Amino acid sequence: MVAAWVVVVVSLAYLGLLFGIAHHGDKRAAAGRSLISSGVVYALSLAVYATSWTYYGSVGRAATRGMEFLTIYLGPACAMACSAVVLQKIIRVSKRYRITSLSDFAAARYGNSRVLGGLVALVAVVGTVPYIALQLKAVSSTFRLVSGGEVSAAGVPPYADTALYVALVLALFSILFGTGHLDATERHEGMVAAIAFESVVKLVAFLAAGLYVTFGLFGGFGDLFDRAAASPALADATDIGEYGNWFWLIVLSAFAVLLLPRQFQIGVVENVDERHVRTAAWLFPLYLLVINIFVLPIALAGVLLLGPTVSPDTYVLALQQSSALALLVFIGGLSAATGMVIVETIALSTMVSNSLVVPLLLRRAEVAARGDLGRLVLRIRRVTILVVLLLGFGFFRISGDALGLVDMGLVSFAAVAQFAPALLGGLWWKGATRNGALAGLVAGIALWAYTLLLPELAKSGWVPGSVVRDGPFGIALLRPQELFGLTGAGAVGNGVFWSLLVNVVLFVGVSLAGRQTPAEAGHAALFVDIDRRTPGPGTRFYRGSVPVARLRDLLARFVGAEAAAALVTEHATRRGAPLPDDAQADPELVRQVETALTGAVGPAAARALVASVADEEPLGMAEVIELVGEAQHLRELDRLKDEFIATVTHELRTPLTSIRAFTEILRDNPDLPAAERARYLEIMATETERLTRMVNQVLDLARLESGNAEWRVTDVALGPLIDEAATATAQLFTDGRVALDVDVPAGTTVVEADRDGVVQVLLNLLSNAVKVSPPAGGRVRITLRTDDRVARIDVADDGPGVPATERELIFDRFRQGGAGGTGGTGLGLAISRRIVEQFGGTLEVSDCGGNGRGATFSVGLPVSAKSAHAGAKRR
Amino acid sequence: MARILICDDEPNIVVSLEFLMRRQGHEVRAVGDGDAALAAVTEFAPDLVLLDLMLPGRDGYEVCQTLRADGHHMKILMLTAKGREAEIAKGLAVGADAYLTKPFGTQDLVARVQRLLGAGT
C-alpha cells in the first residue's frame, strides 16, 4: 500500500501541525484574542467524543450487529439537544467554585470529601486506561495495515510498535499544552484549538472514505443497498438487534457524553462562554449524524467485497485502493485517536494530582513546608500523563487481539455512568449526602467490575472462562452476564441495569437514612441553588484566625508571589481599607484564597491547606445559622428571621410601653403636682432616647451585616480616643458611683481604623461595665497595652463576670449577659464585635483574673507602623 | 380597694403601673423578679398580680404556674411585649386570668383590673 517511511513522515507532519496549532492558540489566548471563543469551535471540540471507536469501530459493529452502533450516537445527541440545561448548570457551578475536574466536582458537592474525590479519580483511571489502550491499538494496527503489514501486533516487539512512539509524542503534547502552567481556571486554549481541528480532520477523512466506497466502488447508495439486499451474508445487516440493548446503550452513552473525563474537560473546564452550549446543542448532534451517514454503507461494502477474513474494525481503511486516500483515512483515524488520548490524559492528570496525590503529599510535613508547591503539582501532573499513557500502551500489548473496540469502550462508559447518581443527582437534590454518594458509587463499581470488566478479562484469558459461562462455583444465578437470571437485556444491558440500580437505590436510601453535617448541607445548597445565589461576600464557612501574610504566602506557593499579592491587594481595595500583613484575614479573603487554591489543587486539598495555616474552630452556632441562611427557601431561615424580628419588636416595645403609659397618665391627669409631672416627663425623655438608640443600633447591625457600613479608615491614635470615651461616659460613672481608672502608656499607639467606629466600641464597653458593676464602690479599669503587632484595650469591671459557657453567646444578637440590666438592647456587643472585625481586630471576654469576680473585655487591633511607643506609664 | 402586686423588671414601667393602681385607690407592692414575687405573695397576700413575662431568673409562666400549684387563687393579669397567639394561649394555660400586650393603653389596663377584681372573691 504505502511505504512505511511515508506513513511515518506524514504522521509526524500531522502531529507537528497539531503542535503548531496548539502553540498558536496559546499565543492568541495570552494576547487576549481567543481563537476558540465561538460556539462552533466548542461544538467541534466536544466531538472529541468520536474516537477511533467511532471511526473504525462503528463500521465493525455495524458489520457484525447491524444498526445497534447508532445507539452510541443517539444517546449523546439526545443528551446534548435536550439537556443543555444540565451541562449549563454543571458549567455554572464549576466556574463559580473553580472546579476543574470530575473528582473535584464530586468532592466539592459533598462537603470537600477527600474520600469521594479520590474514589472518583480512581474509578476514572481504571475505567479509562483500557479506553486509551483501544486508541493506541487502533493506531498501531492501522499503521501496519496502511503500510502493508499484518494487522495483529502479536509478532511485533513492543519497542518496534508505532503505538509506543505515538503514545510518547502524545504525552509530550499533553504535557506541553495541558500542564504548561498552574492556573486557577485550568483552561488550555491551544489544546482545545488543536482538538477542534482534529474533529474537522476526522470528519473530512471519514466522509472521503465513505464517498469513495459508495460512489467509487459502487454506483451510489441504491446500487450498494440493492447488492447488499441480494447477498445472503447480509440478510440481517439492517436488523436492529436486541431492544434491551438499545435502551441501555442509549442511556449509557447519554451519561458518557457528560461524565467521561474528556467530555467534562472539554465541555465544562474548557468552556469559554456558557452560551456556546446552545450552539453545541444542535451542532454536536449534527456532527454525529454526518459522521455516521457512511457507517452502514462502508460496513455493507466491507462484507460484500472483503468478507469475514478481514477484521470488520479495519474495513474503513482496507477498502481504500488509492494510496493517497488510504493515507488520508489513516490520518483521520490518527486524529480521532490522538484527540481522545490528549484530552483524556490531561483530564486524568488533574484528577490524579488534585484528588489522589496532592492530598496525600500534603499530609507529610516536609512536603507541605516546601516553598514552591505549584511546580511540584505540575510535575505530578506531567508524570501522571506519562504513566497513564504507558499504562494504556501496556494494557493494549498485554490484552492483545482479544480487545474489541466497541466492547471495551462500552465497559469504560459503564464505569463513568456510575458517577451519574452522585453527580447529577447531587446537582438537583439537596438531600443527597456524602455517605449516600459513597455507598452508591462503591456498590455500583463493584457490580460493574463483576458484570462487565470480569467477562472482558475472561476474553483475554486472565480469568477462567468458566466463571463467566457457568457462574462462579457453577452457580448459574451468579453468572456475571445474566446476573440473577436476568436475560434479554444483553450482556451490557445486564451489567448497566444491575450496577446503576444498586447505585441509585443505595445513593437515595443512604442519603435519606443519614444526616448531613453542616458543611455538607452548606455545599449542597451552594450547588443546587447556584442560580438563586449571587457571587460575592456573604458566605462564611470559616471561623478561625490567620494573619493575612500567612494566607498570602500559602497562595504564593501555588500561583506565584505576584498573583497572590495581587489577590490580596485587590481585596483590600474593594474593602476600602489597607490590609497589613499581620491583620487577621476576614472570612471573605479566606474564601477567595481557598477558591484560588481550588483552581490549582482541587477543593479537598485547598480546604486542607487553608485549615493548616488557619487556627480553625469547628463550625459554631453562628456559622450554622449562616449556612442555613444559604439555603434561602429553607423554613429554618424563616423561623430564625421571625425570631429575630420578634426579639427586635419585643425590645422596642419596652421603652414604648413607658412612653405610652406616661403620655396617657399626663393626658388624663392634668392636676398632677409639678414635681411628679417633671419626673414623668423625665422618664419619657429617657425612654425616647433609649428607643432612638435601639433603632439606630438595629440599623447599624443591618448595615454591618449587609456589608454596607461606610468607614473612613485613617491612622488613629488610640490614647486620645480612650480619653474621649472616658470623658463621654464620666456622667454615667458618677451617677452609678463607680470609679474609672484609665491606664494608657506614654507613647503613641496608632491603628488603621475608623475613628468613630472605635469610639462607639469603647463607649459600649464602658457603659456595659458601669451597668454590671456593683453600684456604689464598683471600679472599672480601662488599659491600653501594645506590642509591635497588636494594640490591646482591656475594659475590666468587678461585676458578676461572664460564665465560661456564655462567653461566645453574649456576642450574639439580643443576648444580654446575666440578669437583664436595664436599658440595654442586647445588640451592643454584637455590633462592637462586628465593628472591630472590620478593621482586622478581635473582641473577646475573659476573667478579670485573680479575685474570680468581674469580666475583662479585650479589643485587639493590629498596630500600624506609625506607632511610637515608650514604656507604660500610669496616668 | 384591693391589694395589687406588681412584678416587672423595668423600673420605669413599674413607676407607671404603681401610679395607675394607686390612683384607683389600691394598695401596691412592686418587685423586680420572679423569686421576689413568690416571696411577696406569702406576706402581702395580694388580690391581683400584674405579672410581666420576661423576668430575670424565673419567668412569668413559671411564677404563674408555681402560684397556682401552691393553691393561690388571686387574679393574675399577664403583661408582656410578646403578643403572639401561642404565647397568649400558653399564658392562659398556666393559670393567668387575662393577658395584656405591651405597650398597653392605661384605660384598658385599669378597666381590666377592675373587671377582674369585681368578678372574683
TrEMBL record, chain A:
It catalyses: ATP + protein L-histidine = ADP + protein N-phospho-L-histidine. Its EC number is 2.7.13.3. Signal peptide: none annotated. It holds the Pfam family HisKA. It is found in: Cell membrane; Membrane. Keywords: ATP-binding, Kinase, Membrane, Nucleotide-binding, Phosphoprotein, Transferase, Transmembrane, Transmembrane helix, Two-component regulatory system. GO terms for molecular function: ATP binding. The chain crosses the membrane at residues 6-23, 35-57, 69-87, 115-134, 162-182, 203-225, 245-261, 282-304, 324-343, 380-398, 410-429, 436-454, 496-514. Belongs to the sodium:solute symporter (SSF) (TC 2.A.21) family. This is histidine kinase. It comes from Pseudonocardia zijingensis.
Automatic annotation (TrEMBL), chain B:
Keywords: DNA-binding, Phosphoprotein, Transcription, Transcription regulation. SMART domains: REC (SM00448). The keyword Calcium does not apply. Coiled coil: none annotated. InterPro entries: CheY-like_superfamily, Sig_transdc_resp-reg_receiver, WalR-like. Residues 3-117 form the Response regulatory domain. The modification 4-aspartylphosphate is found at D52. PANTHER family: DNA-BINDING DUAL TRANSCRIPTIONAL REGULATOR OMPR, REGULATOR OF RPOS. This is Response regulator. It comes from Pseudonocardia zijingensis.
